Amino acid sequence: MQAALMYGPNDIRVEEIEKPECPEGGFVLKVMAVGLCGSDIRNLTTDSKSGKYPHIYGHEITGIIDEISPSCTEYKVGDRLYIYPADHCMQCEPCRTGHSEMCENLGNNLDRPGGFAQYYTVLPRQIARDVIYHIPDGISYDRASLGEPLSSVYACQENINVGFGDIIVIIGAGPIGCFHAKLAKLRGAKKVIMIEINDNRLETAKQFGVDHTINSLNEDPIDAVRKLTNGKGADKVISANPSTQAQAQAIFMAKRTGIVVFFGGVAKGALTELDTNYIHYNGLWIYGHYGSNSMQVQKSFELAISDEFEAEKFITHILPLSEINKGIALTKSGEAIKVVLHPNDREYPKVCVNLQTDVR
User: How far is CA 8 from CA 13, 141, 265, 276, in A?
Assistant: First the structure.
């Protein structure tokens, strides 16, 4: 099979390797669509495996069962599936208290081979832990693949209770920032303000319900947010980017007793300098968000494949696996919102004109 092998930072080569054997109690999935995530790009462009290469990344996986173990009776060859990458044990204390995103016995999807390949192995452990979802008829693999990146966004907004009448600031107009904008509007937000340094991304973000855009290279984003909120600040501010400067500025964009979310991870070892006096005297809530619990995973998948989410607007580029490096460049430049790769592109063409009806 073909696979995108990482040999080191920025060294990704699409090569022929052995197709994986079908595991006892599991199955082999033919990967039809796999999203290119910001975390994938971060891993592919840094020494993420500490020299333990080659490695296959890719975790936004959808496909069709190609081969299955006789002892696996829950599924059958030909089933169209979305595979959530993190399997929760549902037995540890975090899982039992509703925080399975912090599972103490989590299956580490980053250690096993991922979905940037024509075939992907699904283990019995993943099946037993209920991380697999059937893709309904009439829904494309591309649309279903957005269930994974949407899950953390969905969980974040549910956890901070984004709702009717809220004024929301989102810092970062990448794929995740655009997901946040769309979901905030679906949840009833009155006003969404997007802050970004890339004008192309700001313009693109408008189609997802953004009411006001601010280029923080051209104007002071704190002053701009204050002007747009009659001097009060926003109800909730979500920093969805890898910048410590953005995190430091975010607290000054929130209203008194407002909520500030540090959603995007920053570079390992980087520290954010915060004015804790300002946080203290203005009663701000600081929330570090990561992942999603099992129920939120299910709800976000259901939203991703619904007409309300309009997944086709987010997927700007569909490429064969052989062009993964092009996909990385498009995403880093801001030209792409969401890149989806087709490892089996001969069977599943590069362009889906209508994601709602294009079923293969």
Answer: 10, 29, 21, 39
- CB proximity list for 69: less than 8 A, separation 6 or greater: 22, 23, 24, 25, 26, 27
In the DSSP assignment, the letter for residue 111 is: T
In whole angstroms, what is the distance from residue 202 CA to residue 145 CA?
24
Q: Amino acid letter at 189?
A: A
Q: What pLDDT is stored for residue 240 in this prediction?
A: 96
Q: State residue 107's pLDDT score.
A: 84
* CA angle 93–97–99, rounded 5-degree value: 90
pLDDT score for 61:
98
Per-residue pLDDT at 349:
46
Closest to 110 measured CA to CA, from 2, 214, 6, 181: 6
Of the candidates 312, 9, 4, 295, the one whose C-alpha atom is nearest the C-alpha of residue 142 is 312
Q: Give residue 267's pLDDT.
A: 84
Q: Which residues of the chain have pLDDT under 70?
A: 347-360
Nearest partner of 128 among 73, 82, 81, judged by Cα: 73
Distances (CA, A) of 69 to 29, 129, 163, 194, 206: 12, 17, 46, 48, 47
Within 10 angstroms of residue 146's Cβ, the number of other Cβ atoms is 29
Render 239-275 in DSSP notation, one character per residue.
E-SS-HHHHHHHGGGEEEEEEEEE-S---TT------
- Angle separating helix axes 147-159 and 294-304, nearest 10 degrees: 120
Listed in sequence order, the residues at least 6 apart from 63 whose beta carbon sits closer than 8 Å to its beta carbon are: 29, 30, 31, 32, 33, 80, 81, 83, 115, 120, 141
At residue 240, φ and ψ (nearest 5 deg) are -110, 65
